[in-house]
Specification:
With 358 residues, the protein is mainly beta. The chain has a domain at 21-195 and 297-357: Beta-galactosidase, Chain A, domain 5 (Distorted Sandwich), CATH 2.70.98. Helix content is 8%, strand content 34%. It starts with a helix and ends with a strand. 44% of the residues are buried. The structure holds beta-D-glucopyranose (BGC).
Length: 358
């Protein structure tokens, strides 16, 4: 009898231990009828429903209907994710802080991309504040998470404003020196119709007279180059398709646009950093940030192998990411704005995605 009781207790304990956390979905709404859904899994924006020029709501981001499709076993994508600890690339996955070297995962062409193989986009965040138009997520990242030093507590606060903007504030603290560079990795297709609309037909403006060239492993070379007379000049709004396949070494290295632009906004988050316009729907997206850089990734690696919402296959360049950030590999380029965070300091970063119509 005693033995049966003990076996039962043991089974219960094992079961409780192996119970998997399930992703939750939170939907923010505003007075103008816009809706943004976010999951605590990876802090991912799952859908963004905004009115087009006719007032019809369109979902303008790629993603999945089933939240478990965001798990890496099913799909290795960064769709909508809150990326940490370090968005973008770190050369050879190596950082050195106060004379100590740390080897991070080398998950992309020998470099560390987006915080490593199991960056925060593949971890659960805790929802610590849930309101009608606000969601605050918390990520407790232990010392040694993906080999980064320091116990880090990070927050991502999404606020949906009545002027149809998704306001995203990032914050983090640490108990040992580390590096932090957070971003949102939404894949935008402002037509709301990724089955038939490619972003090469959209118009882009970038408030940037320089960008950071890369080698053929997508690693920044350390150079800051002028966009003047190159396919990287978006200081006047122009069709993405115009230069994306140009006969240009940097375009070849990036397989199209997959580069960091050096913003001319001087950290002023009231000045437009980027603007994307979709003639098909009339929807405009303006990006504001206090960060010095923005990664424009034009979905060059989408190749029709991922099936998303409504069973739609995501083909080449069906979406574009506008990732506000420190420049890639800043930890190894001391002359660039630093991503170092020390105990007692608070990392903060601000990004606004504001929607409208033309
Ligand atoms: C990178 C791309 C990469 C993509 C994956 C972007 O930020 O620049 O090279 O393929 O993220 O999510």
């Amino acid at each position: 009898m005693k033995r049966i009781w003990l076996a039962g207790l043991l089974a219960l304990m094992v079961c409780a231990g192996c119970k998997r956390q399930s992703p939750e979905l939170y939907t923010l709404k505003n007075a103008s009828g816009m809706e943004v859904s976010i999951t605590n899994y990876g802090g991912r924006i799952v859908s963004v429903k905004v009115p087009d020029r006719e007032g019809v709501l369109r979902d303008v981001v790629l993603g999945f209907d089933d939240l478990e499709d965001y798990y890496p076993e099913r799909n290795e994508t960064d769709f909508g994710a809150s990326i940490g600890r370090y968005a973008n690339r770190i050369k050879d996955g190596l950082i050195s802080i106060d004379g100590k070297q740390y080897q991070l995962p080398r998950n992309n062409y020998g470099h560390c991309l987006h915080g490593g193989t199991r960056g925060w986009q593949y971890q659960f965040y805790n929802a610590v504040e849930v309101g009608e138009n606000v969601l605050k997520l918390e990520r407790i990242s232990p010392d040694g998470d993906q080999n980064f030093p320091g116990n880090v507590k990070a927050y991502v606060t999404f606020t949906l404003t009545d002027s149809n903007a998704i306001d995203i504030r990032y914050e983090a603290t640490t108990d040992a020196a580390t590096v932090i560079n957070m971003t949102n990795h939404s894949y935008f297709n402002l037509s709301g119709d990724p089955a038939s609309h490619s972003i090469v037909d959209d118009v882009l403006y970038l408030n940037a007279s320089h960008y950071t060239p890369v080698d053929d492993t997508f690693m920044t070379t350390g150079e800051i180059a002028s966009v003047e007379g190159t396919p990287f000049d978006f200081r006047k709004p122009r069709l993405i398709g115009e230069g994306i396949d140009a006969d240009d070494e940097q375009i070849r290295n990036g397989h199209g646009y997959d580069h960091n632009w050096v913003l001319d906004t001087a950290g002023d988050d009231t000045v437009v950093a980027a603007e994307l316009y979709c003639p098909a729907s009339g929807i405009v997206l303006k990006v504001y940030t206090d960060e010095p850089g923005i990664q424009v990734y034009a979905g060059n690696f989408l190749d029709g192998t991922v099936k998303g919402k409504g069973g739609v296959v995501y083909n080449h360049r069906t979406a574009i990411c506008l990732e506000t950030q420190k420049y890639p590999d800043t930890p190894n380029k001391p002359e660039w704005p630093s991503a170092l965070l020390r105990p007692g300091e608070t990392y903060s970063s601000h990004c606004v995605f504001e929607f409208g119509v033309k």
